[in-house]
Amino acid sequence: xxxxxxxKKAMMGGTWKPNIYLTNLAIAQFQAAxxxxxxxxxxxxPVQLPxxxxxxxxxxxxxxxxxQRKPMxxxxxxxxxxxxxxxxxxxxxxxxxxxxxxxxxxxxRTNAPxxxxxxxxxxxxxxxxxxxxxxxxxxxxxxxxxxxxxxWTGKAATPSTNEFLRFxxxxxxxISFVDNRIMEIKRNGRRKVNKIALGYKTFIALKNxxxxxxxxxxxxxxxxxxxxxxxxxxxxxxxxxxxVLASTYxxxxxxxxxxxxxxxxxxxxxxxxxxxxxxxxxxxxxxxFAWDMLxxxxxxxxxxxxxxxxxxxxxxxxxxxxxMKQTGxxxxxxxxxxxx
Length: 340
Description:
Elements: H1 4-13, E1 44-47, E2 51-57, H2 59-63, E3 83-89, E4 91-100, H3 101-109, H4 118-141, E5 151-155, E6 163-165, H5 174-189, E7 195-198, H6 200-207, H7 210-216, H8 230-237, E8 241-244, E9 248-250, E10 260-262, E11 269-272, E12 286-291, E13 300-306, E14 313-326, E15 332-336
Parallel strand pairs: 1-12, 5-6, 5-15, 7-8
Antiparallel strand pairs: 2-3, 4-14, 7-11, 9-10, 11-15, 12-14, 13-14
């Protein structure tokens, strides 16, 4: 970027070109990496094949007391441990972006930093698109009504079966509600909820809920006032992690006026048990099976290739292959309409 003296000299000498792009400044509203949500709740299972099967042992048989009193001079009937099978199927999604080599040439010669360089910009944009796509698939497969069998709905008043008082309604007690759901999942699924995902409006409602504020109001001071954030909520709910689903996207079609929205339902909440990393014989409410279609243990792969001769073009290709599955229905609880 030139300083004012350089600009004045260039103008006086007749060499000033006001339409030359700055090579050390570019504005691109890439999303903050921590806002992407697809891998923050359920672990990724790397797989060598695009589709295969896996075993599921019967929870009922494992949880039953199968020990028997041994008869004298005899033996008991062997215990029965049943199992079933399920499968995953990783499909490949693709994105291609073009680069005009002649337009990119000035940036190469001036060593343009960062995304001011078209090649760097397209690679970063391709990765951004892949992560956004995975977030949208997360919302479709995990964070919507009808996906989980254990589902509750918020009401403005007089909740009944599988309903609760919305968190932005006077008199609601989110801590008691979550405690009861955690207890049910522990009883039925044999694991304690360790992760809670919140839509953005649900998070705001919890931050301002009277029952929650009453728990933290004496923990602050003038210098350090009491506040409710993800860590505070995790402590109050007794879980390891509270994730706010803050990823956003443009719902509008190409050429239409932007229509920005949150990827995940702003008024929902999901409580799950899911390990931080996949382990053999470890249950999880969900697993994301990911196939490294080009090798190298990368389920998101970016490559570059030349266009046809004479076009002076090249292309950025981005591939990702995954299958997002619910693998433990009794290890999750989905809540809709947590706020108005």
